[in-house]
Amino acid sequence: MWKWLHPYSNPQTTYNLCGTLTPWFAGISAILLTIGLAMSLVFSPPDYQQGESVRIFYIHVPSAMLSMGIYLGMAISALCALVWQMKLTETSIAAMAPVGATFTAIALFTGAAWGKPMWGTWWVWDARLTSELILLFLYLGVIALHNAFEDKELAGKAASVLALVGVINLPIIHYSVEWWNTLHQGATISKFDKPSMSTDMLIPFAISFFGFAFMVASLICIRFKAEIIARNSMRPWVKALAMEKEAN
Amino acid sequence: MQLTYRKAFKTILVRDLTIAIRHRDDIFNPLLFFIITVSLFPLGIGPEANTLMKIAPGIIWVAALLATLLSLERLFKNDHADGSLEQLLLSPCPTFVLVLAKITAHWIITGLPLIIIAPLLGVLLNLHQDSYLALMLTLLIGTPVLSLLGAIGVALTVGIKKGGVLLSLLILPLYIPVLIFATSAIDAASMNLPYDGQLAIIGAIFVGSLTLAPFAVGSALKVSIN
Amino acid sequence: MSNTTNLLTANKLTCIREDRLLFEELSFTVNPGDIIQIEGANGTGKTSLLRILAGLSQPYSGNVLYKDTPINDSEEEYKADLLFLGHLAGVKGEMSSEENLQFYLTMHGLDASVAEETLSEVSLYGFEDALASHLSAGQHRRIALARLWQSKSKIWILDEPFTAIDKAGVKKLEDLFLQHAEHGGAVILTTHQDLSLKSSNFHKIVLTHQFI
Asked: How far from the centroid of its chain's Cα atoms is residue A134's Cα?
């Protein structure tokens, strides 16, 4: 069953694969985002309650979903790294964490920007925003731990353990924050829940979501390539690659 | 002569407690920190009794988190520095047994004193009189969770030279659920509402971390001594 | 591989530390009765090799086999049959020398009541009740070495066991190594001293700087 995966335990093969995939991902993402964002930011109807500010939704929700998704992906990589001792999956954690943290930050920022017209204040301890904030802390923890180790291989292993611990905790944290929120704020906020989407919202939303998803994929591929190069700098194929670049 | 799990556990527990008792600062410094932090709040907020009563559970619990955090480094740091950590990991007893023993010792040294001193701080903060039992119970079930989760963080950072600040970044987010449910249990008690639901959740978190944390700590230690 | 089980096998070990290649595809076997000295200048990876053999560090590639099973799969059996003494003595300053030794004996399932007499083997007689924090680094080292006299483990991996040990002590340790080898044990050690071991099973493995 694992046979087809085997060639990708070789850094060079994976590097080349990422190199091939990146332009495709980036291209698809550019097309989808152009269509999706044009539809959502210009052509979609304003919400009858929230007016034009509902458009933030098309950026906020995809980035919030992706920020969670990337963490999950990181945890799956971490599990593979620890169970099957696959070195490349450790490397991929280093590639994913900063991208995930950036999207969490985007979700937070857009959430705050959405909050201003909605609640008249930049920050409300809303359940989803609070969860995103804590998710950002978890991401920053993984990144900080990764940076703290001199030896990149150890860094990858330590980050794997932390990512796994984090993913087990994430649902508990999420649930507890949601519960805490209902306890303390009662009925003040319900607008922030996803508005029940009509089709003229759903289509631009879906398109921009996949646009962002492919953007994430291409960013991760680029970072993954960089991490592979950094860790294999003394390998002949990396040196050959460097020579080639220099010759051009 | 066979080394049973029970014997290994007891040997390590006795060793860690002996060391702590001969080195008393380890016990008293976090405790003093706990007391001082709590007593800063009335100075910063004002001595108004109702305000204090309202925020008392949160303050005591946050201070307990920070005091635990402060004491965590000792869990593996000294052992790592003098080489006994690698000797422990090489002993024939499985890693999770020794990790559990060390965490138990840590809890006895730091968690237990916090529980004992907490009612006194409740008095300082004018804690609602119906809340004392809830405060003690949440601390009793909650502080072992703090030790267990904290051990993961220390195990990850023990090999790093300046791991102290990093440790708080890694661990504090993981403490949030315990903080939320513990303070809400104390609040509920002050309103004469049942709080066994919150206690049950903290208990579940405790059981969960008791079963999973030792393995996470074990693999983290393997990375750190590499 | 021969049909008699090797005690310990290093199988194509490669070690890379902070982007520096220490050794590559290193293979050797350790049989009962062997005394193996790892030689090499500073920074050639002697300590790294010993730590990999003990299972404390993971090699970049390759693996270590204990009785033909990878040590990661037979962890508990291997740990029960291994005694590793590293650079650090692992002695707690808050406990007396006797308590320190007793602790390690108990943790290896040995009789802790002989700790006091064992300490006299490493000329620490009279210091058994002294707190280790009052003792010197050399004395710490000797507390750790005292475990060798009681050990029932077959494989001894010792990193610089002779540092801060006087001549008589070195002689005593060498005798102990020979005795251990005769009883079917194996010793793997690093040292800067010349060993005067007269044994047919005394080998050397030399590590050199790798240039790439």
From this structure: 15
Q: Do A234 and C60 touch (CB under 8 A)?
A: no
Interface size B-C, in CB pairs within 8 Å, comes to 76
- Checking ipTM against 0.90, whether it exceeds it is no
Which pLDDT does position C211 carry in this prediction? Answer: 60
Q: Are C90 and B86 within 8 A, CB to CB?
A: yes
Contact residues on chain A for C60, CB-CB shorter than 8 A: 153
10-residue mean pLDDT profile of chain C (212 residues): values are 70 81 86 87 86 88 87 86 89 88 88 83 80 86 88 89 83 88 89 74 78 56
Closest CA to C5 of C112, C62, C81, C59: C81
At CB < 8 Å, which residues of chain A contact B? Answer: 82, 134, 137-138, 140-141, 144-145, 148-149, 151, 154, 157-158, 161-162, 164-166, 168-169, 172-173, 175-177, 179-180, 183
- Nearest CA of chain B to the CA of C107: how many Å? 6
Among all chains, which residue has been given the structure tokens 């969490």?
A: A104
More reliable by pLDDT, B191 or A122: B191
Give CA–CA dist A237/A245, Å, rounded.
Answer: 12
Give the count of beta carbons closer than 10 Å to the beta carbon of residue C205.
17
The per-residue pLDDT for range C176-191, each reduced to its tens digit, is 988 898 888 899 988 8
| Domain residue extents for chain A | 58-192+205-247
8 Å CB contact of B177 and A161: no
- Joined together, the tokens standing for residue C168 give 């008589």
Nearest-CA distance from C78 to chain B in Å? 8
Which chains neighbour B (Cβ–Cβ under 8 Å, 3 or more pairs)?
Answer: A, C
Distance from CA of A5 to the nearest CA of C (A): 19
Mean pLDDT throughout B180-206?
A: 91
3-state helix, strand, coil in chain A (%, to 5): 85, 0, 15
DSSP-derived secondary structure letter, C15:
E
Q: In this structure, what DSSP letter does residue C94 have?
A: T
C64 contact residues in B (CB cutoff 8 A):
none
C34: three-class secondary structure by DSSP: coil
Distance from the C210 Cα atom to the nearest Cα atom in chain A, whole angstroms: 13
CA distance B31 to C28: 54
Q: Which of residues 131-150 of B touch C (CB under 8 A)?
A: none
| pLDDT tens, residue by residue, B83-137 | 899 999 998 888 999 999 999 999 999 999 999 999 999 999 988 888 899 999 9
- Residue C126, exposed/middle/buried by CB under 10 A (0-12, 13-18, 19+)? exposed
More confident residue, B162 or A141: A141
Q: Is the dihedral of CA B112, B115, B118, B119 positive or negative?
A: negative
What pLDDT sits at residue B119? 92
* Residue B184 · residue A180 · CB < 8 Å: yes
Which residues, at least 6 apart from B8, have a Cβ–Cβ distance to it below 8 Å? B91, B93, B97, B98, B101, C107
Residues of chain A neighbouring C48 (CB-CB closer than 8 A): none
